[in-house]
Specification:
The protein is α+β, with helices and mostly antiparallel strands. The chain has 5 helices and 25 strands. It has an 8-stranded mixed sheet, with helices on one face. A 4-stranded antiparallel sheet has the order 18-19-20-21, with no helix packed on it. The longest helix has 34 residues.
Length: 542
């Protein structure tokens, strides 16, 4: 029986193809159901397959496989059928047919497990030293800081609307006297006065959890729920210091009236007041960790280095627009056409990156800051200046353009020239910044070590690249910037034979921060990532 036959060149009497010089044939013949006549395996059937590669020349044929190994032990192997009983007495090691390893998997990744194990063996000694060093540093930090800072929220201060009963309002904004059987909202003092037993009792707006209104028949009901322990996830730290275990709390108050005018007005004013107070508290919490920056020292005389027609992210004022970036004595200033400005002090820059437009549509400078700054109404620790060197999308019409279209060739040449020019301008500007800042150095990510993965703050599959001082993804916002000095340990998850992807979890030295997950990394990047982490003196587990 002939196997692997080529239907166009079967060597038989009906073949009409002409054999010419330069052709290569694989001449193969196979036999089956041959009977073994040796005493050892007498009576057993076997199959035989013989093949040679032949090159047809001008003067004759040349057998290319003449120098291949043809010993029986090199070209033979045994296959045991399921119904055959194993021969326990046979000595496989002394068999004259030799031993050939039959692999369960013959795919392209059949040696991946072996390669991973070899990489682990090469890095095991250094990783053991890193683990010991990491343990000593962790014990030292615990000894210096105790159990570390508490994650519990700070105790709330007691809100005071009126320090004396004489400060209670006696009339409304319209000049009418207050009625003792009606509610009143004092927006200036941020308090709600509720009639209780013929008196108006004030409650600060921060003590009110929520308010609801309903109607049943001719009655209108106003229900006010207060902040109290024991329900709704209210922690003890959210209560004033006067509150203790023996205190009694009002959980809710329900008011009803036939004429809904006063209750409707109270319901509206309470919701507006709560919204205003919550927005103010949110803004205070947002600006709590902001640090006042040193004023920018402008260059009054001499040449000012500038980058024109560049954009900034996050955008100033919520509107995208190009502007000018200027280099001054102790920092950078970005000016938008609308007159808005952004100042970056060199002392507040923790890491600086320059990424040319090699395979991206933008060339960029990225700054990772020590302390966050406010850009418009957003707080950010990352600021990026960039220029688009080509269109992000093209309009496709029904007219198919030729590959030799002169307009298209000219457009490609313009894009290539723009890319090279902007890369050079950004690179020259980064050198000027390094000269002015003295202790600031721009880092260029390593594209050769890059890999695709899903960073924690982005659901899309992004190209993540290692750099000298960080692991970054700077093209698709929200950006992913992890300084190497902040990494405590890296852990590889879902490293299972047969899976194409794995996950990497980065544990930071600040245990108050959540670990960072980078998901769906191709397994071909596992060994390069291990080698890179080991070269950066970062301990990893698998």
């Amino acid at each position: 029986v002939i196997e692997f036959r080529e239907p166009l060149f079967q060597l038989n009497s009906k073949t009409e193809a002409v054999v010419s010089a330069g052709m290569v044939f694989n001449v193969a013949v196979g036999f089956e159901k041959l009977v073994e006549k040796e005493l050892r395996d007498k009576g057993r059937n076997y199959a035989l397959f013989i093949a040679d590669t032949v090159l047809v020349g001008e003067s004759g044929a040349e057998v290319l496989t003449n120098h291949a190994q043809k010993e029986w032990t090199d070209v033979s192997y045994n296959l045991n059928d399921d119904d055959d009983e194993p021969d326990d007495t046979a000595d496989v090691s002394s068999s004259r047919r030799g031993n050939v390893e039959i692999l369960d998997s013959r795919t392209r990744g059949k040696n991946s497990q072996q390669k991973h194990q070899e990489t682990n063996d090469l890095l095991s000694a250094h990783q053991s030293k890193l683990e010991e060093t990491m343990r000593e540093e962790a014990l030292r930090r615990i000894a210096e800081n105790g159990n570390g800072p508490s994650d519990a929220p700070e105790q709330q201060s007691t809100p005071i609307a009126y320090r004396d009963p004489n400060q209670y309002p006696t009339s409304s904004s319209s000049g009418h006297s207050l009625k003792l059987n009606q509610t009143f909202v004092d927006g200036g003092k941020e308090a709600v006065l509720i009639p209780i037993f013929g008196r108006l009792v004030p409650f600060h707006i921060s003590t009110i959890k929520n308010v609801s209104k309903s109607e049943e028949g001719v009655w209108t009901f106003l229900r006010i729920n207060f902040v109290a322990p024991g329900g709704g996830g209210i922690a003890a730290q959210q209560l004033p210091p006067e509150a203790d275990g023996n205190s009694h709390f009002i959980r809710e108050i329900t008011l009803k009236a036939r004429v809904p005018t006063n209750l409707n007005n109270t319901f509206r004013l309470i919701r507006e007041l709560r919204k205003r107070v919550q927005a103010r508290e949110k803004q205070v919490a947002l600006e709590s960790d902001l640090v006042t920056q040193e004023p920018l020292q402008l260059i009054r005389t001499g040449k000012i280095h500038r980058l024109r027609d560049i954009s900034v992210r996050p955008s100033l004022g919520g509107k995208k627009g190009s502007g000018t970036l200027e280099l001054h004595a102790n920092g950078l200033r970005f000016m938008s056409p609308r007159g808005e400005s952004l100042d970056l002090n060199f002392k507040n820059i923790k890491l600086a990156f320059f990424q040319p437009a090699d395979k991206e549509i933008i060339v960029l400078m990225h700054f990772h800051l020590h302390n966050p700054i406010m850009m418009g109404k957003k707080k950010t620790k990352d600021v990026q200046f960039y220029v688009e060197v080509m269109e992000a999308s093209y309009a496709l019409d029904n007219h198919r353009r030729s590959g030799y279209d002169p307009d298209e060739l000219e457009e490609e040449q313009r894009e290539r020239a723009l890319r090279n020019r902007m890369n050079q301008e950004f690179q020259n500007f980064t050198r000027k910044v390094e000269e002015a800042a003295k202790d600031l150095e721009f880092d260029i990510p390593y594209r050769d070590l890059g890999f695709y993965g899903v960073p924690p703050h982005n659901r899309a599959n992004c190209f993540i690249m290692p750099a000298v001082n960080a692991l970054v993804e700077l093209v698709e916002p929200p950006w992913f910037v992890v300084p190497l000095n902040d990494i405590e340990v890296a852990h590889f998850e879902r490293v299972v034979y047969g899976l194409k992807n794995f996950d990497m979890v980065i544990v930071l030295k600040d245990f108050k921060e959540k670990p960072l997950h980078v998901n769906a990394i191709n397994t071909e990047h596992l060994d390069p990532l291990k080698t890179w982490l080991d070269s950066c003196n970062i301990k990893f587990y698998e």
